[in-house]
Design goal:
10 helices
Length: 262
Amino acid sequence: MRNIFGEERKNLILALVEDQKRVDLQALCEKFQVSESTIRRDLREMEEAGLLKRTHGGAISIRSVNFEPSFSEREITSTQQKKAIAAKAVQWISNGDTILLDSGTTTFYLMQQLTAFTKLTVVTNSLMLPQDLELPPGIDVIVLGGAYRPGVLSLVGPITERSLDFIKVDKAFMATNGMDLEEGLSTPNVVEGDIKRKMIKRADRIILLSDSSKVNQISFARFADWSDIDVCITDSDMPEEFARKLEERGVEVYRTSAGKEA
């Protein structure tokens, strides 16, 4: 590669970050044939200029960190994958369970699967409950109180946290905006992250429901490490290597779609 000077190199790095959402420190050193200290300085200066966010071993797009789609925007993306994930998640529910459903579109589809049961207690902080769903009489739905977040249709804040203090559930079905091998699970909103963290503490078993579009994505507020997660149910497009490394961390991984499971 020809010699590239500082400002041009930073422009090229920014283009890579915007295109790939994240870049690796060592890969940048090899690409631009410069030292690790040079790339670290470039990334530091770019972060100070508000162009990206540094992470352990690289950097990510500042847009990906803060972006949070609305419920309606999420509902029209990866719909079939989310429905397949929800259908698979039912296998972790038994009659008599007390379960917690995090706010999110995949957990919304999981709620629709609960007509197969006769006795459940369902706790959620989501206000996007299926309006036309007729659940059997033995299924009790408890909606946590809290501050309303328009767009994402969830309840958060100190009242929600206080409500969680009074309960203990068998299983929590969690959603996420980002999942990364090193950074764990994350969401764009700090207050939302606080609630997710508290939900994990109040459950005996944690089942993560996430389509593969969240792989290698990092949002602003980290709320869990992989050591907090027992099961990850995703779709068949999750990279084999990513799934293998999760299993090495003790997470049971199930990749599913309308036509196949792994």
